[in-house]
Amino acid sequence: MLTFLRLVRIIFVCLRHGLDDLVLTGLNHPLASGLLRVIRLGTRPSRPRGERLRLALESLGPIFVKFGQVLSTRRDLIAPDLADELARLQDRVPPFPSAEAAACIEAALGAPPAQLFAQFETDPVASASIAQVHFAVLHDGRRVAVKVLRPGMRAVIDKDLQLLRVLAGLIERLLPDGRRLRPRDVVAEFDKYLHDELDLVREAANCSQLRRNFSPDTPRGQLLMVPEVIWEFTTSTVFTMERMYGIPVSQIARLREAGVDIPTLARTGVEIFFSQVFSDGFFHADMHPGNIYVSDRPETLGRYIALDFGIVGSLSEFDKNYLAQNFLAFFQRDYRRVAQLHIESGWVPPDTREEELEGAVRAVCEPYFDRPLAEISLGQVLLRLFQTSRRFNVEIQPQLVLLQKTLLNVEGMGRELDPALDLWKTAKPYLEQWMHERVGLPGLRRKLRKEAGQWAQLLPELPRLMHAQLDRPDLTPAVLAELAQLRRAREQGNRLLAAVAGLGALAITIALWALSQ
């Protein structure tokens, strides 16, 4: 009954915000057009469809808000106007009672906050659909932030996910583009994201990995600050980390007042992104302004601070090589190389004509190069490339879609800080250096060092393996004799088949002659 009532509420909210118009206009059927006219009663929605969809998701609650946020990253599947509007969804919900948060901490860590911490702020500093954050002080004086999972979230999520699966099935069956949009796959991807976020140990591990990649005692530590995980106070429902101090990156006036060099900050953000992607193959994939701060402490002034590590992306060596070569080919307007990379990757059917794909890529990229480089969006170029690839039946890899969404975030953040930011000029030297290190002598030395351990085990065995191979009897004459025998048997079989076919033809001819008499 509760599930049925929830479904009724969803239908009511969809009708109130005119989402029936969004569905029926895509059916392209006379019956759908007539039904749409009846429902509209001669009126038309006053707001754009993207805005109506965003308002409906906000009305349905935090799980649907988060679904809209994930859907906004799939610009390869939905229209740009819908993706842009869904990207505006804000995951802000009222906090749950502090007593419940204390009970969750006690259940997870075995003691109430009053015993675990020297000081614990009962009022949360931030609250979202999945968890909320409280500041605290450990007994050794370290200041920390304690992230507490909302109680009962798994049951709520599972119920709403079941409804989303039903709606996805209807969309797949009713809409002409339903199969191409793969709504069930999108819901399955959302299911994975949500359940990953429900495990705060996973998020803590992501945080720890990113901190190790930007270790404070290395030069890269001067670019990005990542909080230290307090593992003894971390479980699947409670995540305790070092407290960070800074200013949200979107508050530019405060950053200027603090003495931060804004143009340098914009360029550093781009460097951090490409460093994560091409050096580590592991990147923070939720880099919107709410998760990125800038330190205002004198000793670390102007350094970026990363928060919220629920969504990260990983790239293989193949992915990194594919992306770097594509970007460099774009810089050089080598569209034939872009087409070749798509075919070599195996994501394009092998019978794709290279010159046809080259022409499609040229049509995507050439309009961008007529503008000043500072006005060109790498994220938009990559998005258009994905859309063009879909015409050639390419299945875009999920990690690349996540990368494209993050690149759009980084571009937007960088150009908000410095409208004159030339992302191409900032990125090109980094990509060229990365390719040089990969294919040049430094890359060869690195690969040799990496494989040295395996070779150390194999090299002593080589003499024995060579001797065993040379000591084996020569089977070549026997193999040749068997092949000759097989060839004779096949020829004999062919002659027999020809004889049978001749006799059959003769019998048919005689039968036809007899019938004609």
Describe the overall structure.
The protein has 517 residues and is an alpha+beta fold. It folds into four domains: 1-89, no CATH class; 91-242, no CATH class; 244-438, no CATH class; 455-496, no CATH class. Helices cover 62% and strands 8% of the residues. Strands 1, 2, 3, 4 and 6 form a five-stranded antiparallel β-sheet that branches. A four-stranded mixed β-sheet has the order 5-10-9-7. A two-stranded antiparallel sheet has the order 8-11. A hairpin with a 5-residue loop joins strand 3 (131-137) and strand 4. The longest helix has 41 residues, at 476-516. The mean pLDDT is 79.
What fraction of the residues are assigned to beta strands by DSSP?
5-15%
Tally of individual domains: 4
What fraction, in percent, of the residue positions are helical?
55-70%
Give the helix/strand class: alpha+beta
Number of helices: 23
List the uncertain runs: none
Distance between the termini: 82 Å
Secondary structure blueprint with pairings:
Elements: H1 2-16, H2 19-24, H3 30-40, H4 49-60, H5 62-72, H6 80-86, H7 98-109, H8 113-116, E1 119-120, E2 126-127, E3 131-137, E4 143-149, H9 153-174, H10 178-181, H11 183-197, H12 200-213, E5 224-225, E6 238-242, E7 247-248, H13 252-257, H14 262-280, E8 282-284, E9 292-294, E10 304-306, E11 312-314, H15 317-331, H16 335-345, H17 354-369, H18 378-391, H19 398-417, H20 423-439, H21 441-458, H22 462-471, H23 476-516
Parallel strand pairs: 5-10
Antiparallel strand pairs: 1-3, 2-3, 3-4, 4-6, 7-9, 8-11, 9-10
